[in-house]
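Quick one:
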Amino acid sequence: MERAKAFLGAQRQTARSRLRLTVLLGNLGGGLLIAEAWLLARIVDAVLFRAADLAAVLPYLLAMPVLFLARALVVHGAERSAFSAAAVIKQQLREQLLGKLQRLGPLYLSGQRSGEMATLLSDGIETLEGYYARYLPAMALAVWIPLAILVFVLPVDARSALVLVVTAPLIPLFMIWIGRGAERLNQQQWQQLARLGARFLDAIQGLTTLRLFNATAREARLLRQDSEDYRRATMRVLRVAFLSSLALEFFATISIAIVAVLLGFRLLFQGVDFKSAFFVLLLAPEFYLPLRALGVHYHARMEALAAAERMLEVLQEPDPPSADGGIEPPREAPGIVFEHVVYRYGDRPALEGVSLDWTPGEWLALVGPSGSGKSTLVQLLLGFMVPDEGRIRVDGTDLRRIDPAAWRRNIAWVPQKPRLFAGTVAENLALGLERVAPDAMKRALEQARALEFVEALPQGMDTPIGEAGRQLSGGQVQRLALARAFLRDARLLILDEPTAHLDRHNERALREVLEGWAEGRSLLTVAHRLSTVRRADRILVLDRGRVVQQGRHAALLEQPGLYRELVRAGEHGR
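Output:
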């Protein structure tokens, strides 16, 4: 919890000037409130006890609306400043978290639940608004406004000032006492919210699978249970919050009543004049109001601490080894060398001593059974991971010394399950590119054998395709991903089973396109359909993290070994 407190405190630097303005305006509003109480006490005293006429009190009456308007403007300005400060901090934190997740890369995200991450970036960040816009200003005003009121009450009535000083600490002490028990409850509530968000998103994304396996009732039951757990956790927090509010209101009301009773007795025995007593009585509720507001917003602090704990877990996750320098990669097709590369997932080896020399412009294919290390090799090449041992050289330069962003700009990657985003066809094609001519998009679509179905869409390239391209078939999504790769005109193209979801006719046509398009470029194909790599310049056969065979299709087919077994298994499976 101390880490979370320090973390939240550090974020104040982002909007320190706005927070200071909020406190300054809040204190100014408190000063105007004291002036209003003094004017009102003077007017009532003059009219009731001094028989003053309208002319005598007119200046004070005219000053009252001015003070009311000024205080309303000050309060409004303080609100705007507070929420502006919170907005700046939330934006900065979102950028910080997103930047961290980008640095951690897909390897880290693959081990996290998407729903939990989405909850953290949305509800978790929004939780901080109450802390910065409400709690922090209330904490400052709970010190300065009561102190200012005491400064004015003490000369007027020292006994009432003494009552205020003695009773004031009861409110924050009781607030802290209850707050200690609320910390644990807020932590549980946040964990339940994250779990509920994760399960809900999983259920939405896997709805088709759930229906096919007749598991919707079971998932609905689990979702209902998580929802009930979150409701219970929320009600426990609200129970403590209402108890805290009741206690704070009780102490404040009793304290004000004590001041009022004492003033009443002293008025009876002429121990104080009416104007002074009325002035003190008007200020007594305002003396406790900032303390009560602090108690009300204290739970915003608890919620923020619970969310900050999870944010810290993400932000303090060690970054993967990154580039040692900012060397620009070659603009032409690079020569890539793997030198005894080893990579492990914990204690499990994924690649063991892989060495290869990939010449510029060569079409290289990776084949092997599941778990042989193909995806790991691709992730290393993309720079998302760094070898535990060995090196990857690009034209003689260690890949770790090359600027990762610049390196990836020269790579076009088509994964086995490409991701399209909510938007139009054109927006998905131009992803990551600043300006793309429509003619260039058409050429890329034509190369990927996608122009025909795109032109048949209601709005052509301006047609929205929905979240993850849900309005398109699997083959259409695959071809759009290929067109996006072709549009980048990269020197290095990495394809993870590019003909997945394609029929035989389109598969054959696409192979011809790739053969022509790959001239002057380096091409890596991760193949599950071995028919797609028959014409590759070189085929690498991986098994249990090692290169066990390499060569052209015809030569490998003549050799006894894993490749021939995979080909024969594929032929029998057709």
